[in-house]
Amino acid sequence: MIQAYAAEAAGAELKSFSYDPGPLGQDEVEVEVESCGICHSDLSMLDNEWGITQYPFVAGHEAVGVIRALGSHVSDRHLGQRVGVGWYARSCLTCEQCLSGDHNLCSQTQATIVGHFGGFGDRVRCQSTWAIPLPPELDAATAGPLFCGGITVFNPLVQFDIRPTHRVGVVGVGGLGHLALQFMAAWGCEVTAFSSNPDKTDELKSLGADHVVNSRDPEALKAVAGSLDFILSTVNVSLDWTAYIQALRPKGRLHFVGVVLEPVPVNVFGLLDRQKTLSGSPLGSPATVAQMLRFAAHHSIAPITQAFPFSQVNEALAHLRRGQARYRLILTH
């Protein structure tokens, strides 16, 4: 039996929950969870904001732990290996996307917390392909958020061939944005942070921002018009997207990784005139996750975290609801 914390209904308190996971799949591993990050997506799923949650619901898709059991066909992982399990628990491995290395774009992906019990427990299971080995240079106690927040902001750097000569911007410096600043600075880019809190300027510069723009000041937004090659939006609220499109240089890209639930109004002429692009992306493939981890280890990039014991999971979720996370929350056994 696996011991976990589960909610029985939308928005309900998480309570102790045990379940029998059944026989281990031939291509699966079972991971003993040492720590698990809490992502805003866990809250969205808990509250059924996306209409896809199944109850009882066990959240947790930023789990780090040690492999304790291997399926009979697993040869790419070994017992005792420390790995991370992120948003994806499975992909088909045979479709065009998987065979091209874009496993995260597979139409048959199984999310770790959608119709599947996640990492808020003592063990979690996934396809061995998606159990990504953790470099020893990274701290297992705090690395969990890299497997969701980290890869979410790193993947676009790879997908869109962002170069050290590019001038880039990050909209929203929270759980995703504080990692994006670190990655982009280490990538060699000139980085602009868009923040609604000018009091954070020194902190944002310490994370890698070369410039900080007050996103609540229309004049400040106008002042950066035509200056950026790439803007990464990490927020989940609607903003004046026209102003950010205008901040792009010719052939610039405004890219979404934050889940904005409202439609994004766009003046198409504002895209056509200077060949600008709007886009979005999910997390990365197993190979890109591994690349991200190596890059983070080499450049000493890590999430800034606050830790709670698993027994205080509801207090931790309440902390996140109140917007008090700085910048990612971790549950530990």
How would you describe this structure to a colleague?
With 333 residues, the protein is an alpha/beta fold. It folds into two domains: 2-145 and 284-332, Medium-chain alcohol dehydrogenases, catalytic domain (Quinone Oxidoreductase, Chain A, domain 1, Alpha-Beta Complex), CATH 3.90.180.10; 151-280, Rossmann fold, CATH 3.40.50.720. Helix content is 24%, strand content 27%. It has helices at residues 40-46, 96-99, 149-159, 177-187, 201-207, 218-223, 241-246, 268-272, 286-299, 313-321, and strands at residues 2-6, 15-19, 28-38, 63-70, 82-85, 88-90, 110-111, 123-127, 131-133, 167-171, 190-195, 211-214, 228-233, 248-256, 277-280, 305-309, 328-332. Strands 3, 4, 5, 8, 9, 16 and 17 form a seven-stranded mixed β-sheet that branches. It has a six-stranded parallel β-sheet with strand order 12-11-10-13-14-15. Strands 1-2 form a two-stranded antiparallel sheet. Strand 13, helix 7 (241-246) and strand 14 (248-256) form a beta-alpha-beta unit. Helix 3 (149-159) packs parallel to helix 4 (177-187). 46% of the residues are buried. The mean pLDDT is 97.
Spell out the helices and strands N to C: EEEHEEEHEEEHEHEHEHEHEHEHEHE
Strand content: 25-35%
In total, how many domains does the architecture comprise? 2
Largest sheet: 7 strands, mixed
Mean pLDDT reading: 97
Number of strand segments = 17
Q: What's the helix count?
A: 10
Segments where pLDDT lies below 50 for 5+ residues? none
Q: CATH top level of the largest domain?
A: Alpha Beta
Rounded to an integer, what's the Rg over CA atoms? 20 Å
